[in-house]
C-alpha cells in the first residue's frame, strides 16, 4: 500500500531543505536580467537537473558513496566551496559572458540545479529515506514526494517573473548582490557542517 507517512515526512523534509520560496531571490540574482524565455528555460532545466540528481542518489546513492569512499561531509564541503565561488562572482559582477546561451545552460546546471536545489542536504535526506523504505508502497511514496517537491520548485521559479515587474532593473541588480551574500552564507554553513562532520567522525 501507498505509505502516506513516508510520503508526508519526505515531502515536508525536502521542502524545508530545498526551500522553494527561498530560491526565488537567488534565481532572480542569477537570471533576473535575462529575457522571459531565458528565465523559463533556466527554471525548467535547473529543476530537471535537480530531479535527475536526486533520483540518481535515490536509486544508487548508497552504492555510489560506498564505491568512491565519499561521505556526506565530503559532499557538504565540495558543495560549499562551489557555492562560494558562485557567490563571489555574483558579488563582484564577474559572471558576465559573451555567450549568453552557454551561460544559461551553465546556470541551469551549476549552481541552480546543483548544489543549490539538489544540494548535500537534499541528497543526504533522500538517501536516509531510501534506507527507511521497506516495501513497494514506500518506494512509490518516496518517488511521489520527490516529483511533488520538484513541481513546487518549478512553480516557484516560474512565478519569479512577477517580482521582476515590481523590482525593475535596479532591484534585480540589488537582488543579485543579496543573493551573493545568501549563497556565501550557505557556503560557509556547508563547509562548517563538513568540518564538524569530519571531526565528529574521526
Description of the molecule:
The chain has 202 residues and is mainly alpha-helical. Helix content is 85%, strand content 0%. It is built from 8 helices and no strands. Helix 1 packs antiparallel against helix 6 (120-132), helix 2 packs antiparallel against helix 5 and helix 3 (36-67) packs across helix 6 (120-132). The longest helix has 41 residues, at 161-201. The model has no long low-confidence stretch (mean pLDDT 84).
N-to-C order of helices and strands: HHHHHHHH
Instruction: Give the overall average pLDDT.
Output: 84
Q: Kindly estimate the percentage of residues that lie in beta strands according to DSSP.
A: under 5%
Q: CA-to-CA gap between the ends?
A: 41 Å
Please give the largest β-sheet: none
Assembly state: single chain
What coarse outline follows from CA principal-axis ratios?
globular
Helix content: over 70%
Number of helices: 8
List the defining traits of the structure above.
202 residues; mainly alpha; 8 helices; 85% helix; globular
Give a concise summary.
With 202 residues, the chain is mainly α.
Helix and strand arrangement:
Elements: H1 4-18, H2 23-31, H3 36-67, H4 72-92, H5 100-117, H6 120-132, H7 136-158, H8 161-201
Amino acid at each position: 500500500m501507498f505509505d502516506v507517512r513516508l510520503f508526508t515526512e519526505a515531502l515536508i523534509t525536502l521542502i524545508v531543505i530545498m526551500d522553494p520560496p527561498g530560491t526565488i531571490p537567488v534565481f532572480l540574482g542569477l537570471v533576473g536580467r535575462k529575457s522571459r524565455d531565458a528565465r523559463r528555460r533556466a527554471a525548467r532545466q535547473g529543476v530537471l537537473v535537480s530531479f535527475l540528481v536526486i533520483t540518481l542518489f535515490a536509486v544508487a546513492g548508497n552504492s555510489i558513496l560506498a564505491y568512491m569512499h565519499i561521505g556526506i561531509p565530503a559532499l557538504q564541503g565540495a558543495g560549499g566551496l562551489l557555492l562560494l565561488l558562485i557567490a563571489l562572482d555574483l558579488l563582484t559582477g564577474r559572471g558576465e559572458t559573451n555567450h549568453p546561451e552557454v551561460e544559461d545552460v551553465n546556470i541551469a546546471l551549476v549552481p541552480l540545479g546543483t548544489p543549490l536545489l539538489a544540494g548535500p542536504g537534499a541528497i543526504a535526506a533522500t538517501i536516509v529515506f531510501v534506507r527507511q523504505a521497506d516495501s513497494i508502497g514506500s518506494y512509490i511514496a518516496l518517488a511521489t514526494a520527490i516529483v511533488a517537491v520538484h513541481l513546487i520548485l518549478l512553480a516557484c521559479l516560474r512565478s519569479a517573473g512577477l517580482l521582476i515587474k515590481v523590482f525593475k532593473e535596479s532591484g534585480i541588480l540589488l537582488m543579485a548582490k543579496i543573493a551573493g551574500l545568501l549563497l556565501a552564507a550557505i557556503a560557509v554553513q556547508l563547509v562548517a557542517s563538513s568540518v564538524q562532520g569530519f571531526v565528529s567522525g574521526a
